[in-house]
Amino acid sequence: MKSKWVPNLRFLVLMLFMGLWLLSFPLSGARSPTLSGTELTMVWKSYLVKHSDREPELRYPYEHCFRQSAREFDLPLALMLAVARGESDFNPKARSKANAYGLMQILWPGTAKHLGINRLKELYEPCTNVQAGARYLRELLDHYRGDLHLTLAAYNYGPKRIRVGARGDAIPKGARWYSGYIYRHLQYVLRTAKATSKGKELQYDSERKLEVLVFHRPYRAEAFVTYLQTQAPKLRLDWFRHGLGRFRVVVLYRDSTELNRARKTLRKVGFRL
Asked: Which residue segment(s) compose the domain that 122 sits in?
């Protein structure tokens, strides 16, 4: 949904404050969302040991593809859903400027051909794309001896740039950021918030997104969400990587009542969408 906002005095004051705050962050590199590399190594290890069998609360698009590939390559279903949500938000036609395609954003032609896919159009087939992503995750997880933090870093940056046995913080900042980014999406998939209504399962697609702002640096999108959450704690906020160098901050809502409530809340803090 394309949104427009109209600035008012409160919004301009908010943006001035946010601008000063965001300028306090370094302008080069990327920041890990909340956790350090060492912490990410630990939380991913804990997830694999304690929670890898947990089922998602919602029903997801193309879930049969994810379940089949998770079984075939012995991977947690929730992990695969988290990667797909972070990479494409379950859009099988997603394409990045870096030539990554489909649900799991498989690079063409290098990674795709390495995984046995020789025609570009195959990457737009949901189950084929998911299976390729699962095969690659399994290959990387074995290569990095079960270290899921390094596995995800390599999924994003390429295995040639991530050393086996590297300390959690001793990898490129962008790769460390990506591991934390996917961990945040995993938390969404496994959330304990109300995912059912009167015993009825809810579909992931039933949750809509209202775009608030777009940033060109991930840590600024995250910082904005953190700040806005302090101003309006009842808003359900999220942010996504959207293509190359774009990060969308959105409000999540399920129906017109929640949408109208969110718009009213945003107006109070200076946004008119």
From this structure: 37-189
Identify whether residues 184 and 112 lie together within a single domain: yes
Per residue in 129-158, pLDDT (tens digit) is 999 999 999 999 999 999 999 999 999 999
How much is the pTM?
Answer: 0.85
Rg (CA), the chain: 19
Q: Are 32 and 177 in contact (CB under 8 A)?
A: yes
CATH number of 257's domain: 3.30.70
Which CATH number fits the domain that encloses residue 132? 1.10.530.10
Q: Which of 87, 201, 207, 211 is catalytic?
A: 87
Report the domain count for the chain: 2
57 is catalytic: no
Of 142, 161, 189, the residue at which a domain comes to its end is: 189
Q: Are 224 and 249 in contact (CB under 8 A)?
A: yes
Whether residue 12 is predicted with pLDDT greater than 70 in this model: the reply is: no
Indicate if 154 and 263 belong to the same structural domain: no
Shared domain for 21 and 112, answered yes or no, is no
- How far is the CA of 188 from the CAs of 25, 138, 150, 208, in angstroms? 26, 22, 21, 15
Identify the CA nearest to 215 among candidates 178, 248, 242, 237: 248
> Which among 61, 119, 69, 125 has a CA at the least distance from the CA of 93?
125
